[in-house]
TrEMBL record, chain A:
Protein name: Sulfate transport system permease protein CysT
PROSITE patterns listed in its UniProt record: ABC_TM1
Source taxon at top rank: Bacteria
Transmembrane segments: 26-48, 73-97, 109-127, 148-167, 253-277
Subunit structure: The complex is composed of two ATP-binding proteins (CysA), two transmembrane proteins (CysT and CysW) and a solute-binding protein (CysP).
Role of this protein: Part of the ABC transporter complex CysAWTP (TC 3.A.1.6.1) involved in sulfate/thiosulfate import. Probably responsible for the translocation of the substrate across the membrane.
Organism of provenance: Pseudanabaena yagii GIHE-NHR1
Family, as annotated: Belongs to the binding-protein-dependent transport system permease family. CysTW subfamily.
Topology class, membrane: Multi-pass membrane protein
TrEMBL record, chain B:
InterPro entries linked to this entry: CysW_permease, MetI-like, MetI-like_sf, Sulph_transpt2
Coiled coil: none
Organism: Pseudanabaena yagii GIHE-NHR1
Name by which UniProt lists this protein: Sulfate ABC transporter permease subunit CysW
Gene of this entry: cysW
Membrane topology term: Multi-pass membrane protein
Subunit text: The complex is composed of two ATP-binding proteins (CysA), two transmembrane proteins (CysT and CysW) and a solute-binding protein (CysP).
């Protein structure tokens, strides 16, 4: 069969450039045109717009007190949410991979809820539950703890949206871990705790960190659920995406762009970190 | 247990009693499962269930009243329209990109994959801002658009671009691993038998990737219908005009119309339930080779 295959054997045409362009498969054309217009062009527009600002002005806007406080609220809260989920998300992944129990399929589906539930709805229901009159918030209100319309509310919304990233990143790695190694450790007299710290955790660390980084980067950029549950008061619980939105509403395009570029740089940095972490985790595979 | 016994027989002196291990194993799972389920319930399940509780606990009257409102119907139609256009466009792109990436080796493949992933890591508000900077009144194409009387920002086309942006990577992301796993033998066989590219695509590739593709479509649809940040930046949020369903939810909540907000929210929550059910079914079909036909 192979010998009778009609191999494409066309002769070279006179114009190599035209020939080259004509030979590009249409899948490539669609991919590049789509990416160029809908992704690359907007990114370039924003970077160009920001670079037209003199550096001192750019720096002054990017590091204005209100911007700095919004970074602090956004990044510290997002990190706290991702870190908490790093612990409980790993635990959930462990339970799903290792144990069989009634309702396991349901639990598996619930993990993906934040991917499927629109963020505005998440924000709405969390704000209702955790407001001073809400059925959870009401328990905290007498102690003077305000959850909705405060930084704790932002934290809760960020915990909601970042949980599946950790579970779904750790789960496949955990599945591939061989149980024999643990059992060998046990039979050599290691306690469950020792086995966990010295046998299970090391190969799992890169994927936990990847999951935390993914969850963190999603939480940092989150707008829908956080804008609803926060009071969006500057220097209190104003997050950076909301600050950009407010700048735009005031027709302060330069201010919005400068802070937008800072966020874009953070996105690129976390993407790079995630790729490096994934390369690290492959070394264990 | 078999492995444990074999290891134990190799090292009899250091092996603990089997009963001891059994005892350890019987307590830990129950505790861990309880913690996991409690955390999941607190963080995800109770908030989601609360949407249905708030929507239905006063009976159906508030719900029926809400659905008599014109602006809610405009929002529903707008959201459906956005998804109806974004979905096919992202499908064509996703399939092309997946095909180009999975079936070719070239320098910068990892880079191209990272670029396709960008919409996942860029904040939706920043995505919306970028579109404003291109097509807004003061944007690159602003004056040209104004001269030709084309409205993109504060109108449907801008909202569509924002929707496409945020839901762009899902299909390529789901189809690429399936194409990788499938290998090229079948395609090569079809080509040897004289099939052209289209025939190979429809008769060999599509039947193989259909579950992965459907899975990607489900995720794209959920994101397209639920997107809030990017759409709200470019839409101007004009009631009964450029207000998609998620924007309608926020607006009515801000106006202290909780019942109306929950009536709209329950539609989106139902969308989420359908998405999760389809996701479970398709995930099994896509990623579990034993259950594939």
């Amino acid at each position: 069969m192979v010998t009778t295959t009609p191999l494409p054997d066309r002769k070279r045409q006179s114009n190599p450039v035209l020939k080259f362009l004509g030979k590009i498969p249409w899948t490539w054309v669609i991919t590049f045109v789509y990416l160029a217009f809908l992704l690359i062009l907007p990114i370039i527009a924003m970077i160009v717009k920001a670079s037209q600002e003199p550096f001192e002005k750019f720096w002054a806007t990017a590091t204005s007190p209100i911007a700095l406080s919004s970074y602090e609220v956004t990044f510290v809260t997002a990190f706290a949410a991702a870190a908490i989920n790093g612990i409980f998300g790993t635990l959930i992944a462990w339970v799903i991979v290792r144990y069989n129990f009634w309702g396991k399929r349901f639990v598996e589906a619930v993990v993906d809820l934040p991917f499927a539930l629109p963020t505005a709805v998440a924000g709405l229901t969390l704000a209702t539950m955790y407001s001073n009159k809400g059925f959870i918030g009401a328990y905290f209100a007498p102690f003077g703890i305000k959850i909705a319309f405060s930084r704790i509310g932002v934290f809760i919304a960020m915990t909601f949206i970042s949980l599946p990233f950790i579970v779904r990143t750790v789960q496949p790695v955990l599945k591939e871990l061989e149980k024999e190694i643990e059992e060998a450790a046990w039979s050599l007299g290691a306690s469950q705790f020792q086995t966990f710290i010295q046998v299970i955790l090391p190969p799992l660390t890169p994927s936990i960190l990847t999951g935390v980084a993914l969850g963190f980067s999603r939480a940092v950029g989150e707008y829908g659920s956080t804008v609803i549950i926060a009071s969006n008061t500057p220097f209190k619980d104003l997050i950076t995406p909301v600050l950009i939105f407010q700048r735009l509403e005031q027709y302060d395009y330069v201010g919005a762009t400068v802070i937008g570029v800072v966020m874009l740089a953070i996105s690129f940095a976390s993407l790079l970190a995630i790729n490096l972490l994934q390369a690290w985790s492959k070394r264990y595979g | 247990m078999a492995n444990l016994n074999s290891s134990a027989s190799k090292y009899p002196q250091s092996a603990p009693e089997p009963t001891q291990i059994k005892e350890k194993k019987s307590f830990a799972p129950a505790i861990l499962i309880t913690i996991a389920i409690t955390y999941l319930s607190l963080v995800l399940l109770i908030p989601a269930a609360n949407v249905f509780y708030e929507a239905f606990h006063k009976g159906l009257t508030p719900l029926i009243d809400a659905f008599k409102r014109e602006d809610l119907w405009v929002a529903i139609k707008l959201t459906a329209g956005l998804a109806a256009i974004a979905l096919p466009l992202n499908t064509i792109f996703g399939l092309s990109a997946a095909w180009a990436i999975a079936r070719n080796k070239f320098p910068g493949k990892a880079l191209l994959l990272s670029i396709i992933d960008l919409p996942f890591s860029i904040s939706p508000v920043v995505a919306g801002l970028m579109i404003v900077l291109l097509y807004g009144r003061l944007g690159w194409f602003g004056s040209w658009l104004e001269a030709n009387d084309i409205k993109i920002i504060f109108a449907f086309p801008g909202m569509l671009m924002a929707t496409i942006f945020v839901s762009m990577p899902f299909i390529a992301r789901e189809v690429i691993p399936v194409l990788d796993e499938m290998g090229t033998e079948q395609e090569e066989a079809a080509r040897t038998l004289g099939a052209n590219d289209w025939q190979i695509f429809w008769k060999v590739v599509v039947p193989n990737i259909r579950w992965g593709l459907l899975y990607g479509l489900v995720l794209t649809n959920a994101r397209a219908m639920g997107e809030f940040g990017a759409v709200s930046v470019v839409s101007g949020n004009i009631a009964a005009k450029t207000q998609s369903l998620p924007l309608f939810v926020e607006e009515s909540y801000k106006n202290y119309e909780n019942e109306v907000a929950y009536s709209a929210a329950v539609l989106l929550a139902l969308l989420a339930v359908v998405t999760l059910v389809l996701k479970e079914i398709l995930e099994r079909k896509t990623h579990n080779p034993n259950e594939r036909e």
